Amino acid sequence: MTGANWSGQPDGRMIQNYFKSLVNMFFKILPLKEEGDPSIDLYMKSLQRELLGCAAMSQMLDYDPQLFSLTAILQYLIDHPDCPVREVRREVFRAISICNKLRAKCELITQSRRTEAGQ
Q1: Residue 25 CB coordination number (10 Å)
Q2: 5 pLDDT exceeds 60?
Q3: Which terminus, N or C, of the chain has the lesser number of Cβ atoms within 10 Å?
Q4: pLDDT mean across residues, the chain
Q5: Is the dihedral of CA 10, 14, 19, 21 positive or negative?
């Protein structure tokens, strides 16, 4: 089996939509925690790997510290599985806020690039 490697850059709209869907992915952590679902650890690790992949693929987010914050929030939650639900809730909503800020940033960059291109 050969590995696939996408060498293109996702466009601004794709990244904006990704951050919109990422809000739901972070929000999903809450019911998993509240219900004591044993798959929460695997879910958060998978989400963290996805974020790292996103960072590697997108020059638009070129070393944005907010993206690092999202992976750090996940790492904290992974490392502290016994933290109370209220703490998980606070961190999840903080991550959602960061996702919304990154989405807005991508939108501004996309608009700026369109303006520069005369579109």
Answers
A1: 18
A2: no
A3: N
A4: 85
A5: negative
The angle at the Cα of 9, spanning 60 to 54, to the nearest 5 degrees, equals 65
Please count the CA atoms within 13 angstroms of the CA of 92 that sit on its side-chain side: 22
What would the two tokens of residue 46 be? 């998978």
Q: How many domains does the chain have?
A: 1
Residue 92 lies in a domain: yes
End-to-end CA distance of the chain: 42
Domain span holding position 63: 12-117
Running DSSP on this structure, what letter comes out for residue 63?
T
Lowest mean pLDDT among 27-31, 38-42, 92-96, 106-110: 106-110
